[in-house]
Amino acid sequence: MRKFFLVVFLVCTVVSYSQELSCIVTVNSQKVGQTNKQIFATLETALNEFMNSKKWTNKTFKPKERIKCNMQIIVDSYSDNSFSGSIQVQSSRPVFNSSYTTPILNINDKQFSFTYQEFEPLYYNSNRFESNLTSVLAFYAYVILGVDADSFKMRGGTMYYNEAKKIVNIAQSSNFLGWKQNDGDRTRYMLIDNLTSNFYREYRTVLYNYHLKGLDRMESKPEAAKKTIASSLQLFKSMNARRPNSYLLQTFFDSKTDEIVQLFTGGPEMNTTQLTNSLNQLMPTYKTYWRKIEY
């Protein structure tokens, strides 16, 4: 009996050390005039279990290494087990030698619909389309993993983006929006197409330089770190010249705008004229934010 409990303990320990994501999923049903809200609570519980219990890779993650992320599903309509709305996906990563956690991904997917019957088990098959609900969540799980890996190693997220692209290719046989090229310019298809395209190569280079060579050095060499971050942002100019206001550029600044302003209005002083001019060109919709950069 003692040996049995030891085996169980070891198995549980391995499982707890293998999960990659620490994900909080919330289901917002305020827009739905539904008297019985239990199905939304049941769905929320099932989604949290799905995201946090599934092993997405063959790598081992210690609890402190799990990637913190959030998914908020806003339900606009619900009828006969059919849901329609949007999903907001956010993730962050720790900064070396600091208690600070930096936002790294912020996406609002407005083409999200699915079917779900209360208490039904959630399945994901990497080789077959089972449901739009699990396919969308799996897609963003791999995007989260890819973006996080890119911030630690140059082009480190390629294997995860390939998994996300595989999901897109399989899901195109379904009738759900967001998976096909002609579904719009802010879709899952467009996101993974851009992430894996050499046409937008600067995005992944910026992720690496900004985080590993920039933020991770803020504690030890703040002045050099700020200069590295500023120079990395300049790389976006070439990408923006080829494709102004691209999806990836918007995605980056949706997550980083507040942080950039804070970084360059404190700490070691540096000339930010060139930086602010570039930021105004790259993302003019955030001009009111760029004006807050004081130095």
From TrEMBL:
Write down what this protein is called: DUF4835 domain-containing protein
Question: Which InterPro entries does the entry mention?
Answer: DUF4835
Q: Source organism's superkingdom?
A: Bacteria
